[in-house]
Design brief:
This protein is mainly β and 323 residues long. It is built from three helices and 17 strands. 5% of the residues lie in helices and 38% in strands.
Length: 323
């Protein structure tokens, strides 16, 4: 069993830590980062009750001690996405058997002291270790004492423990202190991130992005959007309405969320909404009711764009054909 998985640790990063024995990390998740998966939250560098990441941006939360590699929907998790060892080492501890479900106040007591959920800790020597949290129940493939190579399969991404979306939380520690692999010396200079990281190939930083775009014949329920069940694979030309929705992460106050629906006859709807507060994840939907016998047959495209201070942060499109 993992000892003190996700236990409270001092968030003291280690300025000037020794280079000897530093692990070289690769991605802990088998997916196309930026397309099939994303980094939603980073290590918190704010010593106060606020939170900011190594870019001095708000992609973190109070005392967050790791990097969250997330999936867009629960449907992806159910299909199975592999968790990989980021560096070679010895398995120090494992935990399995915790159910995958959205964390809430209703089940908080059940995960108290086991917030990491199902997970693995790997010892890399010289006081270095990595921890992989929130893995899928029954998916773990390693045992305590196993020797693992870089990229070894540890299990699958899940939603166990204190998790509100499917992801693998990667923590890096040196002599018990939390280390941000994107800024291992812990010295933050806003606007000038450290070029020295623990990554073999540093994942690109995304200040927010579009997770999913889909179609429906009505405004979908948010739970269905998050699960991946909201997106209609086909719609009739007699559908009562055409709705496009966008699901996104990393929203900041003042961001504009633009949704455009075009069809065979041109633009059907083009609307924008401005976020009145920061939101870790959110969705918006726009559409139009049928006011004729049927919709023109053909291909319809929904394009969703996240705009910040006049600049496009991310944009993604989806298509559907009505017959």
């Amino acid at each position: 069993m993992i000892r003190a998985l996700c236990a409270a640790l001092s968030l003291t990063l280690a300025p000037g830590m020794p280079a000897a024995g530093e692990p070289v990390l690769t991605s802990p998740i088998a997916c196309d980062l930026g397309r099939d998966c994303f980094i939603q939250q980073y290590v918190d560098h704010d010593p106060t009750t606020g939170a900011f990441d190594y870019h001095c941006a708000p992609l973190s939360y109070e005392a967050h001690k790791g990097t969250d590699f997330g999936l867009a929907t629960l449907k992806q998790m159910q299909a199975g996405v592999t968790v990989l060892a980021s560096a070679p080492g010895t398995v120090k501890g494992v935990r399995d058997g915790m159910v995958d479900r959205i964390y809430s106040t209703a089940n908080a007591a059940e995960v108290a002291g086991r917030e990491c959920g199902n997970g693995v800790v790997i010892d890399h020597g010289d006081g270095w270790e990595t921890q992989y949290c929130h893995m899928k129940k029954g998916s773990l493939t390693v045992r305590t004492g196993d020797q693992v190579k870089r990229g070894a399969v540890l299990g699958q991404v899940g939603n166990s423990g204190r998790a509100q979306f499917p992801h693998v939380h990667l923590s890096v520690r040196h002599d018990g202190a939390t280390i941000d692999p994107f800024d291992p010396d812990g010295v933050i200079t806003c606007g000038s991130p450290d070029s020295n990281t623990l990554w073999q190939d540093p994942p690109p930083y995304r200040p927010g992005g579009i997770l999913d775009v889909g179609f429906s014949d009505a405004v979908p329920d948010y739970d269905d959007v998050k699960s991946g069940q909201a997106n209609a694979t086909s719609l009739s030309a007699n559908a009562a309405a055409l709705v496009v929705y966008g699901f996104a992460f990393g929203g900041q106050e003042g961001d504009r969320f633009r949704i455009v629906l075009t069809g065979p006859d041109g633009t059907v709807v083009d609307q924008s909404a401005t976020l009145d507060k920061a939101q870790a994840q959110f969705f918006r939907a726009v559409g139009k009711r049928l006011k004729r016998a049927s919709w023109p047959g053909g291909t319809y495209t929904g394009t969703v764009t996240l705009i910040r201070q006049g600049r496009d942060i991310d944009s993604r499109s989806a298509r559907i054909t009505l017959r």
